[in-house]
Specification:
about 130 residues, mainly alpha, 2 helices
């Protein structure tokens, strides 16, 4: 009878060890699955951030191109008009030079250049604020 009790104890201990190993394996699987889910979430967030960065850069390029033309036109008009006003205000019939240093042509040129640069900068800034 003592042999039967020893056998039963050993069988019970083996069963308990098997259950403990299965529980540990299940815990490891759960931890690995949780880590995989976290990696997938991180990868999805990184992909979304990259997609948003690409959209913003594309919008910036598009807005910068439009800003060049619009800024050049507006700057040319404003400074061209200022050049005309300056030329008219500084006309002196007694001088040999009838046209002032800042005139329509200088105003158009400076206005187009400055307007284009400002247009690029504003276009890029606007593009970076888009979602």
């Amino acid at each position: 009878m003592p042999e039967l009790q020893t056998f039963l104890r050993e069988a019970w201990a083996a069963t308990e060890r098997q259950k403990a190993m299965e529980a540990a394996a299940a815990e490891r699987r759960k931890a690995m699955e949780a880590a995989a889910v976290e990696r997938q979430k991180a990868m999805a967030a990184a992909a979304a951030a990259e997609a948003q960065r690409l959209r913003r850069n594309a919008a910036s390029a598009e807005n910068a191109l439009g800003g060049v033309f619009l800024g050049a036109v507006i700057g040319g008009i404003v400074l061209g008009f200022s050049g005309c006003v300056s030329c008219a205000a500084h006309m002196d019939p007694s001088r040999s030079q009838m046209i002032s240093d800042f005139n329509l042509f200088n105003g158009l040129l400076y206005g187009a250049i400055v307007g284009a640069v400002i247009g690029i900068i504003v276009g890029i800034i606007i593009g970076q604020t888009k979602d």
